[in-house]
């Protein structure tokens, strides 16, 4: 795991070029580029990979930071392990997007899971992530339980004939290719693929900065399920406060910390962020988020 070091005056005064995220019109985060690794306009989106002194290797799509080596484990662990361990008997998982393989790396740690489908629209994201971030997927794409489908996930969920215990939407933000992944139609199609007791989870942005993204999830997801809420985690490179993850299921889950600890025994490999206590706490929401959810 890349450790964040203190910024030095030398780093600040170097004349390296920088990568400016264009997610917000009136406010920017900027990364100094130590070394540009890869830059391409794929058939789907702009893909840039570069190294930064503090965050390590960084992947950006269409001007938006998708992950950094330093903090990706927080995102991928909380997105994967919360629904899977809350459910308790997951045998199949559908990942929507997630072509970088970081989420897949966490899902394959669950030895009881028998089948994992990943539906990714852009084959270049998979290929370049395997090439330039080999430890991100850590061999997970080659796991025999994994099927890779190169297709727009919104079409995949329409045509799919199989059912899943957990569906996780590891998408970009709701514009460009991912816009369709925040619609009621998509959420409805996902619901029809969930087994009894199934759970749907998605990334819903950083609510302090992206209130509209959270409200969009609420508007389109909530009417479809008996139980819809959010949980959160703070991921430093998704700036502006905690990120929210939409949670939807027709079953009410209230798994105890003790049970989560017992279920964690079935997870192989090291964890950086996830603990059962963090899991429970992640469902405690601040007032400003509760107001947005009304
Ligand atoms: N605002 C950026 C949100 C990015 C969420 N997707 C990250 C993909 C990592 N697998």
Overview of this protein structure:
With 294 residues, the chain is α/β, with parallel strands linked by helices. It has two domains: 58 residues, Spermidine synthase, tetramerisation domain (Spermidine Synthase, Chain: A, domain 2, Roll); 222 residues, Vaccinia Virus protein VP39 (Rossmann fold, 3-Layer(aba) Sandwich). Helices cover 30% and strands 27% of the residues. It contains eleven helices and 13 strands. The strands form three sheets. The protein has a seven-stranded mixed beta sheet with strand order 9-8-7-10-11-13-12, with helices on both faces. Strands 3-4-5-6 form a four-stranded antiparallel beta sheet, covered by helices on one side. The chain is globular, with a radius of gyration of 18 Å. About 3% of the residues have low confidence.
Task: Annotate the secondary structure layout.
Blueprint: H1 9-13, E1 18-20, E2 30-32, E3 35-41, E4 46-52, E5 56-61, E6 64-68, H2 72-87, E7 92-97, H3 102-107, E8 115-120, H4 123-132, H5 134-137, E9 146-150, H6 153-159, E10 164-170, H7 184-192, E11 194-203, H8 211-221, E12 227-233, E13 243-249, H9 257-263, H10 276-281, H11 287-292
Parallel strand pairs: 7-8, 7-10, 8-9, 10-11
Antiparallel strand pairs: 1-2, 3-4, 4-5, 5-6, 11-13, 12-13
Bound molecules: spermidine.
């Amino acid at each position: 795991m890349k450790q964040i070091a203190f910024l030095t005056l030398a780093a600040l005064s170097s004349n390296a070029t920088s990568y400016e995220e264009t997610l917000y019109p009136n406010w920017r985060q900027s990364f100094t580029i130590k070394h540009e690794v890869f830059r391409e306009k794929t058939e789907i989106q702009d893909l840039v990979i570069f190294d930064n002194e503090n965050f390590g290797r960084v992947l950006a799509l269409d001007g938006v930071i998708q992950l950094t080596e330093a903090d990706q484990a927080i995102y991928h662990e909380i997105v994967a392990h919360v629904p899977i361990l809350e459910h308790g008997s997951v045998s199949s998982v559908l990942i929507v997007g997630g072509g970088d393989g970081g989420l897949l790396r966490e899902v394959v740690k669950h030895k009881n899971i028998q089948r994992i489908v990943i539906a990714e629209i852009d084959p270049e994201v998979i290929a370049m992530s395997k090439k330039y971030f080999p430890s991100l997927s850590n061999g997970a794409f080659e796991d025999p339980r994994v099927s890779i489908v190169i297709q727009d996930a919104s079409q995949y969920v329409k045509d799919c004939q199989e059912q899943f215990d957990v569906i996780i939407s590891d998408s970009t933000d709701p514009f460009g290719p991912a816009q369709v992944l925040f619609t009621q139609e998509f959420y409805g199609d996902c619901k029809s693929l969930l087994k009894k007791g199934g759970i749907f989870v998605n990334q819903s942005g950083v609510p302090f900065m992206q209130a509209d993204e959270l409200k969009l999830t609420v508007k389109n997801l909530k009417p479809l399920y008996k139980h819809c809420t959010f949980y959160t985690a703070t991921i430093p490179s998704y700036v502006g406060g905690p990120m929210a993850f939409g949670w939807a299921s027709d079953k009410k889950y209230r798994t105890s910390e003790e049970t989560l600890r017992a279920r964690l025994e079935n997870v192989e490999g090291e964890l950086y962020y996830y603990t059962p206590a963090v899991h429970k706490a992640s469902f405690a929401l601040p007032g400003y988020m509760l107001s947005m959810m009304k």
